[in-house]
Amino acid sequence: MQSHPGSQVAVSEEKRRRPSWLILSLGFGGLLTCIVVAAVGTLAALDRVRSNEVHSRKMFLERLSALDQIRAQIYLSGTYVRDFLLSPDPLTAQAQAAHLGPLERDTHNAIEAYRRNLEPEEREPFLALRKEIEAYWQVLDTTVGWTQQDRDRLRFSFFYNELVPRRTAMLQIADRIALVNERGLTRSEGQSASAAGNLRRYLMLTFAGTLGGGLILALVTIAFTLRLERELELRRSDLQELSTLLLRAQENERRALARELHDEIGQSLSAILMETEGAECAERRADLSSHLDSIKGLAEKTVNQVRDLALLLRPSMLDDLGLAPALNWHARETSKRTGLNVVVSADDAIDDLPDEHRTCIYRLVQEAVNNAVRHANARTVDVSVRKEGHKVNVTVRDNGAGFDTRFLRGLGLLGMEERVRRLGGRLKITSEPGRGTLVHAALPLSDLEKRNGHEADSYLVG
């Protein structure tokens, strides 16, 4: 099929846009996902650091409180034992000894509480402290059983040789544990500082990754926008070219119509006027009859010319009989006029199509067949129109010379594209030099409002 040289026909814009939109959607979605994941990870890391810090400080304070309680109870127990030993009154001594029982239970409870929060580094001094405390309370339990004579006799030696050294040893061990406990707190704070440093590095990496992804997406978006602007400019150029070609075709059609009216119909009417004048001047009946026969022949010829001209503009049978008869008539007329074998295969259901669809299909087939006649030197053209589901498939195939779809494009192809696009359809033209041409159009059967809002895919395939 023929086209005039022009700009290269682009591949379907909708097909080209989908991958770009997919890439942009995935990119922005991935960036947002990274930001959300980074935010969630940061909050989780902050929560872990805060929880670890709170837990470490809580454990330190609980152990410190237990040590302070143990120290206080050791000091208080020494005071009660001293008063017990120095009391001259048995009742008062018994009262002082009675304080030691609850104090011993509180000491053991404090030791057990400290054991539950014990750090590995504190195990050795803690075991030594517990051993000393147990021995200490065993000595005190023995001491409170002394009689008045035993107290008077042993009080000073027991106090200075037994009680004070044991109490001093226990307090020294408690101080060792407190020192280990402080080191544990320092170690926990160091771990918290290390976790905070890791969190900062994680945030820096996340920020760098997000910034890099954002820059890449910005560059992709800019490139995509520039490409869309170029495509829009090309489309505007195509529309301007089409408008120019349409105006030129309109003028050519008007010129051809005027020439047809002047050269054919005008001359026939002038001949009829001349024959009429000749009939008026005829004196013999035979001359009058000859003029009338000539007028009749000229009138019949004029009527046929007007009918052919009207059918070329728009066949009346397209409105009166339907699309299938109009296509068959056009095939017969083309075969009669050119000798080209045009075979039409059409469903009866296509006659129920909307008027716009019938007109589009007729003009598309008409243009494709005329191109095969004028430019392809084809011997056979097969036309197929089928209604399949919610669309109509139109196929025109010839066995002519074909053409290179990359470099040839003209008003006929542009007109077919615009007609199909206006109905929201898809036009595909496949051709190669020496292998004929295939024109395929798929027209959706949708509401007029929906059709007018769609843009069709229309492209040429070499």
Main attributes of the structure:
462 residues; alpha/beta; Heat Shock Protein 90; 2 domains; six-stranded mixed beta sheet; 11 helices; 9% strand; disordered N terminus; disordered C terminus; HATPase_dom; iron-sulfur
Sheet with the most strands, sense and barrel status:
6 strands, mixed
Largest sheet strand order: 1-2-3-5-4-6
- Compressed to H and E, one letter per element, the order equals HHHHHHHHEHEEHEEHE
The outline comes out as: rod-shaped
CATH class of the largest domain: Mainly Alpha
Instruction: Output the radius of gyration.
Output: 54 Å
Structural class: alpha/beta
Q: Mind explaining what this structure looks like?
A:
The protein is α/β, with parallel strands linked by helices and 462 residues long. The protein has two domains: 14-217, Four Helix Bundle (Hemerythrin (Met), subunit A) (Up-down Bundle); 323-461, Histidine kinase-like ATPase, C-terminal domain (Heat Shock Protein 90, 2-Layer Sandwich). Helices cover 74% and strands 9% of the residues. It contains eleven helices and six strands. The chain has helices at residues 13-86, 90-98, 100-116, 123-143, 148-281, 285-313, 316-320, 323-338, 355-376, 411-422, 448-452, and strands at 341-346, 380-388, 391-398, 426-431, 437-444, 457-461. It has a six-stranded mixed beta sheet. Helix 4 runs antiparallel to helix 5 and helix 5 (148-281) runs antiparallel to helix 6 (285-313). The chain is rod-shaped. It starts with 12 loop residues before the first helix and ends with a strand.
